[in-house]
Amino acid sequence: MARITKISITLCALLFTLPYTPLTQASEHARPVAAHKAHVVKSTTKSTEKSSKSKDKTTTASKKTNTTSKTTSKKKETTASTSKTAKNSSSAKTKNLASKDRKKSSQLAKVQPVALTEKCSKPRKGYKTHCVKVKAEQPTTIAAAHKVRVQKAQKTAMNKLMGQIGKPYRWGGTSPRTGFDCSGLVYYAYKDLVKFRIPRTANEMYHLRDASSVDRGELETGDLVFFRTQGRGTADHVGVYVGNGKFIQSPRSGRDIQITSLSEDYWQRHYVGAKRVMTSKTIR
């Protein structure tokens, strides 16, 4: 009996312990799984949060770039429009000025009448004179008038000089009746054409303040050319340039007044310089 009771007690104990052991084991086994799931859930939420943050950053960056590109494009458009408007305004101004100038010129043309003169032909006997209106010649400008005056004076001086060719040299001579020395010939040609007094020696003529220096390559008809032949002063001989590299001179005693070439060796070696006596300010 005692054995039966022990067996029965052990069976009862086994029956009570069996249903609780798997539950406890199962709960102990389920704990790490749940923890792992919770960790996974947390990591996923963190990754989603990170991804959302990165997406937000990228979207904000893209928005910033878009806004900057839009602003730059707007600025370019505004600058282009302003440049176009400035060009249009400048072109309009130039057109307006051109139209105003045309109007002024047309008005002046209308206001200033054309000067007319009458030309009449000699009539035959028993006929009336026939006159025709013709446009008057336009007055010449001041510069052209001065040039004409200088050319006329040069021509007068050349005529006076050319008329003395072949006459003998005479020291101190200033008259066509007696003859000329070098400076006397220049004095005779220019004394009545210029405002200032012409000196009587070649050296004084070379240092004349009223005459301007001229380079050899720019010589004109009527310019004075100077030479130093005997070593006296700066210049002791003078002639007048007549063009084409030639000058007229009264060389020395025993020789006649003649035209000589400046390119001759003797005159090239002794050449000193040139002076211009006749200008629009110095001629009478």
UniProtKB/TrEMBL annotation:
Residues 47-58 have a biased composition (Basic and acidic residues). Residues 151-278 form the NlpC/P60 domain. Gene3D superfamilies: endopeptidase domain like (from Nostoc punctiforme) (3.90.1720.10). It comes from the Bacteria. Keywords: Hydrolase, Lipoprotein, Protease, Signal, Thiol protease. Transmembrane segments: none annotated. InterPro entries: NLP_P60_dom, Papain-like_cys_pep_sf, Peptidase_C40. Residues 1-26 form the signal peptide. PROSITE patterns: NLPC_P60 (PS51935). Residues 31-113 are annotated as: Disordered. Residues 59-71, 79-95 have a biased composition (Low complexity). Pfam families: NLPC_P60. PANTHER family: MUREIN DD-ENDOPEPTIDASE MEPH-RELATED. Belongs to the peptidase C40 family. This is Lipoprotein. It comes from Buttiauxella ferragutiae ATCC 51602.
